Amino acid sequence: MKRVLLVLVVALLAVFAVSVVAQETNTIADIVVASAGGDTPEFATLLAAVAAADPAILEALSDPEAELTVFAPTDAAFAALAEALGEEAFAAVLADPAALTNILLFHVVSGVVPSADLVAALEANGGSVSAPSLQGQLIDFVANEDGSITVNGTANLVLDMVDIEADNGIIHVIDAVILPETRTIAEIVIASTESETPEFTGLLGAVLAADPAVVETLSDPDAELTVFAPTDQAFADLEAALGSDAFAGVVADTAALTDILLYHVLPGVYYAGGIAGAFAMADELPEGMMVEDDALIITMANGDTVSVTLDENGNAYINDAMIVATDIEAANGVIHVINAVILPPM
Q: 2-174 has which CATH code?
């Protein structure tokens, strides 16, 4: 594998040597190539990964008109990933252009974000912020008491290697490779039921009892969904409110149960920030959404509408259910957790 990486790096260095002379650019791609070929190479594996991914990655990093922020893993970061995955699995990732492209895009943010702007955003938001990557999922940033900044829970900014300026953006070096979520919503729900503190056992039971199309949709890696997932306590509360016999009757009624579950699903991927921001953009909302008085009215997957509201403390509700956790990312969408089962209108 090391020989393959070396061949890729040498080939790209040759290509870029011509490109740099001809264009006299200092793009992000130029900087990565120069570092990979320097006396103390740093981005050799990153360069090999870019070469093995979709050509659009290299084109974007080479485009002098682009405006990008790249969180660039060091060679040591890739070595640590190879050790964690095993050499064979790591080589398989390098040989899978789609998976590799997905990972690389997760390290890139549109626009130029200097470290000072990131620090200011952290200070203004209680020490944590998120930014959408070009891969689509959010990258989470957390400010720590020792002054370090954690990136997506597993990496840290290398503070003496930030703000590397390029013609088409800026590079911040990180000490680990960050990986996007690859599990589907269905897989995340199942994993939660099998954890030490299971949460979505009621939801999983309902999904399995409903029309098979529900679990197929939640399992589809190409779907784009937002799911408002009731907790186990939410299902227990519904059973207590309806009575055990009536609750069992609902679970046994495939059509009714499917309708209820689809009432918790919103086509498209909407993070909490996007939902909250929708209140201020009534004239630019996507189809199926509208602002009415102080509520955001959304058409769900079953065709009925819900009302999303904010209370005076900033808590968000969907109908009468409070949204208690947000932005649990999946390969095919996002999950927001709610403390009650919402029922479609009769």
A: 2.30.180.10
> Cα dist. 321→26, 196, 271, 324 in Å?
52, 25, 17, 9
Q: How far is CA 107 from CA 90, 110, 139, 177, in A?
A: 18, 10, 8, 8
DSSP letters of 167-223?
TTEEEEEESS------S-HHHHHHHHHTSSS---HHHHHHHHHS-HHHHHHHH-TT-
Tell me the pLDDT band of 99, cut-offs 50, 70 and 90.
very high
The Cβ-side half-sphere exposure at 176, using a 13 Å CA radius, reads 14
Question: Residue 186 above 70 pLDDT?
Answer: yes
Looking at domain 185-338, its CATH class is mainly beta
For residue 216, what are its two tokens?
């197929």
Q: Which DSSP symbol is given to 176?
A: S
Average pLDDT over residues 192-196: 93
